[in-house]
Design a protein that fits this description.
single chain; 353 residues; 7-stranded antiparallel β-sheet; 6-stranded antiparallel β-sheet; 9 helices; 21% helix; disordered C terminus; Ntn_hydrolases_N; GATase_2_dom; Gamma-glu_amide_hydrolase; glutamine amidotransferase; omega peptidase activity
């Protein structure tokens, strides 16, 4: 299925995130290392959303295309010129909706960006019921036909009950509660429609100031789609560790050639936060796995907060026991280095401890 990437920090040239790293999200689209060979490539379009650091309270920009991300020359050119403090990137492997730009993530509404990795099981069976509960503005909002965009319409509908969705910014607590209400409503619709297949709901939303993302599945026995985060002070090419030029979060440098990257930590305070379906580096210590049934928040002050999503599918144990068979079948599981060598693609680079 899809892969997503979130960056928040001091402005960075997009190329350092989406094209230059040897395991960038674009390279993951066709060469997703440490995952099963049978999984599909992410060739059904892509999208990149960002905010202009020089324009206060700016609405986001989005570049989308239906070509594979790795072969789009305009994406590579733009990535070398655009600098932003907050980036959403997404490569798509379609599960619902036709191949069209309207169906490519992320989507914009006012100051908000939204994207999704996963799928809503049995969506066609309750799509009309979901639509019937929307105010007219949000019923007419979707231009495509994916479950992900309709989930965004539902989010906006819930947000409109407590705030103006066209506001410039929102308290992160409000975005969090609206996200949880959106998931709750989808869960209710699945139950009402008699859908037993799990829905994989890794959602992400931002207003340019805060980020709220989830790793969630409406199942007490299945694992959610993979999601990781990394924090530090600078995101560096491997050459920088040997005294070469660093890619510092404090200024916009020109892009380097494709290379192995590292998250460098020189301060207790986070200057960079990355959230990704699949790690961008092969250094195990760079990344932490986000637990299933979790909402993760990046605040405007760069604090990273995690809260459990406690419902009937939450496991109240220190070591939850969940099967990865379902997400492996959907191509949404990241295979760790501890997995059986027979399951790792031959010749693929593995975690470095």
């Amino acid at each position: 299925m899809c892969r997503l990437l979130i960056f928040k920090g001091e402005p960075i040239v997009l190329a350092h995130l989406i094209t230059k790293p040897s395991h960038s999200i674009i390279n993951q689209a066709f060469d997703s290392r440490l995952r099963l060979d049978a999984r599909p490539v992410n060739a059904d379009g892509f999208g990149v959303g960002w905010y202009d650091p020089d324009v206060e309270n700016s609405t986001p920009c989005v570049f989308q295309a239906i070509t594979p991300a790795w072969s789009n020359r305009n994406l590579h050119r733009l990535a070398e010129k655009i600098c932003s403090p907050l980036v959403f990137a997404h490569v798509r492997a379609s599960t619902s909706g036709a191949l069209s730009e309207e169906n490519c993530h992320p989507w914009i509404y006012g100051s908000l960006l939204w994207m999704h990795n996963g799928h809503i099981a049995g969506f066609k069976n309750f799509k009309r019921e979901l639509q019937s509960g929307l105010f007219d503005e949000f019923f007419h909002f979707p231009q495509g036909n994916t479950d992900s965009e309709w989930a965004f319409a539902l989010f906006l509908n819930e947000l409109s009950k407590v705030a103006d969705p066209k506001s410039v910014s929102f308290p992160y607590t409000l975005l969090k509660e609206t996200m949880l209400q959106t998931i709750k409503r989808i869960r209710e619709l699945c139950i009402q429609a008699g859908i037993s297949e799990p829905s994989l709901l890794n959602f992400a939303v931002t207003d340019g100031q805060s980020v709220v993302a989830t790793r969630y599945v409406n199942s007490s026995t299945d694992e959610a789609a993979s999601l990781y985060f990394s924090t530090g002070t600078s995101f560096e090419a491997a050459s920088a560790l040997d005294g070469g030029p660093a890619i510092n979060s404090e200024e916009c440098h020109g892009p380097l050639e494709a290379a192995q990257y590292r998250m460098k930590k020189c301060d207790k305070r986070e200057r960079i936060v990355l959230i990704a379906s699949e790690p961008l580096t092969f250094e195990k210590t760079d990344w932490l796995e986000i637990p299933c049934q979790t909402v993760i928040i990046i605040t405007p002050k760069m604090n990273v907060l995690q809260f459990p999503i406690i419902d009937e599918f939450f496991q109240h144990t220190l070591t939850p026991n969940r099967s990865s068979d379902y997400v492996i079948g959907k191509g949404l599981h990241y295979l760790p280095v501890s997995a059986s060598p027979s399951k790792i693609c031959p010749g693929k680079q593995q975690w470095r401890k």
